[in-house]
């Protein structure tokens, strides 16, 4: 036998000399349906959105993760990718959307079949170079999902959690901030109740979402200010408060808002304007004393480099399932440390983000986002969901990305894009 040493992992993996390289034999895209019980409406309210500048959208509720059935049931629909090797190892990633699944099946599958699943850098580069029209958006989501599935395979092959393959843990537990999307923000009694409840569960930081943007006028601005005031009075001086604008404001509005909430000491203002408006971020950052976070809707190291080089943000928030996968998130975070910036990924996948967070310096990744309501949906089909305890997530001991699916949660399923007729559908 020959000894094989893996960088960042202190163990030794023994491989038989002359053994054929394991190859990817097939991809499965499983569309799953399930449900869970609710007490009243699951999504109580929504956040401000960029499209709110148009009156017909200002009060519309987007469809997030499934559908409410009556007042006591929420139906979940999600797509999971399974990358299967010829020796039976299955890498799992998700949930994702049908649109992303189609890109995986039609454009990425031909690149992946017959390849070494452990060659994550090679496959990432080939996928990225193939998608010449897809360096951002859903095409990069597709690359991200595949990359995370390949890391799941790699962890299973070496029988260790992924965080041990990418440097090992810097700590055993990662502090979380409770991300309160979907909770009522205009009933201040409910805000106090939910904020206190999260505090009692051990969270030392909470993120809340503004409901109003510039088109709501002075009354909407006053509501936003009152939300921040209520949170600070409720949580006291010791807890951190993050505030998400979700790309829905402009420079004058943010400056006015920041002036009125500065005394409540927000930990950051997030995604103040639309993500491509880097100059606007820089103008805001130069004029307010509240740190700025953002770029969850940015992609790859090259996209994040623009923000870093412009000095436009204090906190970078790549989403591991969007930005290019775990492989790319590690590169983004490494570049950020050169400038002593904080990297706290957006919470699109708690299991994947936890693998990342465990390996980062606590000063550069002091928190991990935990989307309280979204995690009920995103982890619904998982056998071993990452569940906080006292505001912390512990390091998992399962090999790979900890993405085993729970068949008891699946009410129905179908394999989508399995016929092969979609292959090579893109025109160059």
Describe this structure in words.
With 428 residues, this protein is an alpha/beta fold. The protein has a domain at 164-408: TIM Barrel (Alpha-Beta Barrel). Helices cover 34% and strands 20% of the residues. The chain has twelve helices and 16 strands. It has helices spanning 98-112, 120-130, 137-158, 162-165, 188-200, 217-235, 251-261, 278-287, 300-309, 325-338, 350-357, 372-378, and strands spanning 2-5, 12-15, 24-37, 66-69, 73-85, 90-96, 173-179, 205-209, 240-244, 268-270, 292-294, 315-316, 342-343, 368-371, 392-394, 412-415. Strands 7, 8, 9, 10, 11, 12, 13, 14 and 15 form a nine-stranded mixed β-sheet that branches. Strands 3, 4, 5, 6 and 16 form a five-stranded antiparallel β-sheet that branches. Strand 1 (2-5) and strand 2 form a beta hairpin. Helix 1 packs across helix 3 (137-158), helix 3 (137-158) crosses helix 10 (325-338) and helix 6 (217-235) packs parallel to helix 7. The longest helix has 22 residues, at 137-158. It is globular and about 65 Å long. The relative contact order is 0.15. The model is unreliable at 1-18 (pLDDT under 50).
């Amino acid at each position: 036998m020959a000894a094989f040493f893996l960088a960042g992992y202190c163990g030794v993996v023994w491989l038989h000399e002359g053994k054929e390289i394991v190859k990817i034999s097939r991809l499965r895209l499983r569309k799953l349906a399930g449900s869970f019980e609710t007490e009243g409406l699951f999504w109580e309210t929504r956040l401000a959105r960029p499209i709110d500048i148009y009156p017909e959208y200002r009060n519309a509720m987007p469809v997030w993760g499934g559908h409410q059935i009556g007042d006591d049931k929420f139906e979940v629909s999600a797509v999971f990718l399974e990358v299967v090797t010829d020796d039976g190892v299955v890498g799992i990633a998700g949930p994702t959307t049908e649109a992303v699944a189609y890109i995986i099946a039609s454009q990425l599958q031909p690149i992946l079949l017959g390849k070494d699943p452990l060659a994550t850098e090679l496959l990432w580069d080939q996928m990225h170079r193939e998608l010449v029209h897809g360096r951002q958006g859903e095409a990069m989501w597709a690359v991200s999902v595949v990359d995370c599935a390949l890391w799941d395979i790699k962890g299973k092959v070496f029988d260790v959690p992924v965080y041990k393959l990418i440097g090992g843990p810097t700590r055993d537990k990662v502090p979380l901030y409770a991300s309160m999307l979907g909770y009522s923000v205009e009933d201040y009694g409910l805000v106090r109740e939910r904020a206190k409840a999260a505090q009692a569960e051990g969270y030392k930081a909470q993120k809340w979402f503004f409901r109003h943007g510039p088109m709501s006028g002075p009354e909407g601005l006053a509501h936003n200010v009152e939300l921040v005031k209520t949170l600070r009075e409720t949580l006291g001086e010791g807890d951190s408060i993050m505030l998400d604008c979700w790309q829905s404001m402009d420079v004058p509005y943010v400056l006015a808002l920041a002036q009125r909430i500065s005394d409540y000491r927000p930990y950051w203002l997030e995604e103040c304007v639309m993500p491509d408006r880097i100059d606007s971020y820089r103008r805001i950052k130069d004029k307010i004393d509240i740190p700025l976070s953002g770029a969850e809707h940015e992609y790859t190291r090259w996209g994040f480099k623009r923000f870093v080089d412009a000095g436009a943000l204090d906190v970078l928030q790549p989403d591991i399932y969007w930005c290019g996968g775990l492989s790319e998130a590690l590169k983004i975070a490494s570049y950020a440390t050169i400038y002593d910036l904080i990297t706290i990924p957006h919470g699109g996948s708690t299991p994947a983000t936890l693998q990342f967070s465990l390996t980062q310096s606590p000063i550069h990744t002091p928190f991990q986002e935990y989307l309280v309501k979204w995690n009920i949906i995103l982890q619904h089909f998982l056998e071993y969901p990452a569940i906080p305890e006292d505001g912390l997530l512990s390091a998992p001991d399962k090999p790979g990305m900890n993405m085993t699916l729970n068949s008891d949660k699946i009410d129905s399923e179908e394999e989508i894009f399995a016929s092969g007729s979609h292959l090579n559908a893109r025109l160059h």
